[in-house]
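Re: that chain you flagged

S.,

Sorry for the slow reply, it's been a week of failed gels. I finally had a moment to sit down with the sequence you sent. For the record, here it is as I used it:
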Amino acid sequence: MAHHHDHEHKDIDWAAMGPRLESQAELFSSLYERVLAWLGQEVTEPGLIVDAGSGPGVVSCLFAEAFPGARIVAVDGSEPLLQRARARAERQGVADRFGTLAGELPGVLDELDYPADLLWASRSLHHLGDQRAALAAFAARLAPGGTLALMEGGLPPRFLPRDIGIGRPGLEARLDTVQAEWFTRMRGELPGHVAETEHWPALLAAVGLGHIRTHSFLLDLPAPASDRARAYVAAYLAHLRERLTDGLDAEDLATLDRLLDPDDEASVHHRPDVFVLEAHTVHTAVRAV
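Prediction finished late last night. Pasting the structure tokens below so you have them in one place:
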């Protein structure tokens, strides 16, 4: 669940990142549980579920819980994150039907022993240069009647009121603009990049899948935020502060620095008005029998 678009950095210390990624995924558990309940209405008794881009395996283990008859394979490019996934499956008593596969998407999927009844790809597709080719590869690994579930898109997150009492009101809207520019650059620098209109239902149809459905899910954690939610907001804003320096003016950078300073009462570590509000969209499509 590379929620922060971290996969583009090949030099990331995933072992060090693991605890943060795991904690963030746990924060989103209520959203994922609703997604899985919805998928449970779309998919009947899958034998093999593949989590393509699983990270530390939080969602993979939720799948094991939601579909007690299924075997789960967590697939990720990072062996340290897959170690965390295996340890989590062990703790949760599902290790006997939980496997992992290390390698880069989509090619590593060729190593699966069996086709998938459900292939889940949460925010991993946009890290692949040729998204249409990757979708075709995902579709090819589905069993007849199997479902591809893609979490891509939604709405930019919101953590703060429009006017936070420091700096110029509307900071998050300006961050959205700079983030969108950064995302376009990131996509353009990926190996084998192909520009693609991000109409996911049309792309799913283009790779031969049918019965396409779309549903959006809300994560609504109101103020005052829990310690875990505050840590997530701080990590998210620190990540933006690190990579968006070029697009923000001095006043916005100074505001971000205050929001991130644990010694400042106006920071996200202390302010009473911090919340988490996010919308994530899931698209499903089925391979013909």
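What I noticed first: The longest strand covers residues 142-158.

Talk soon,
D.
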